[in-house]
Here is the input.
Amino acid sequence: MLENIVVHSIQVYRVSMCLVDYLKLQGIQMDGQLVQAAALLHDITKTRSFETEENHALTGGQVLTDLGYPEIGNLVRQHVRLDDYSDRKTSRKPRLSIMPINACSMTGSFHWMSA
Ligand SMILES: [Fe+2]
Here is the structure.
């Protein structure tokens, strides 16, 4: 894996954990270990995609699913393009009211985001 992709994945992990903390403050519980794994692995096939021109989100998701991690694979598969959820009966708007960066500061996570 290319070094810049490793660095990018670590940064995505850091931001993701910040968002998990923020959502927790908003009363929304997330599976932090699932998010952590997906964040770190989301570009697992990105390096090879430069040669193969494969859709790295789809192939990364499939690799993880084939390895026995379908939940992580599903998140990785959607990291470029989300599935269409527009047919859901509710069109509830997000009720989050403060910027995530504020939550990161409040939880003490911000200092390592900028490290
Ligand atoms: Fe990606």
In short: Residues 22 and 106 are 9 Å apart (CA to CA). The first helix runs from residue 3 to 25. The helical segments are 3-25, 32-41, 46-52, 56-66, 70-77, 100-107, 110-113.
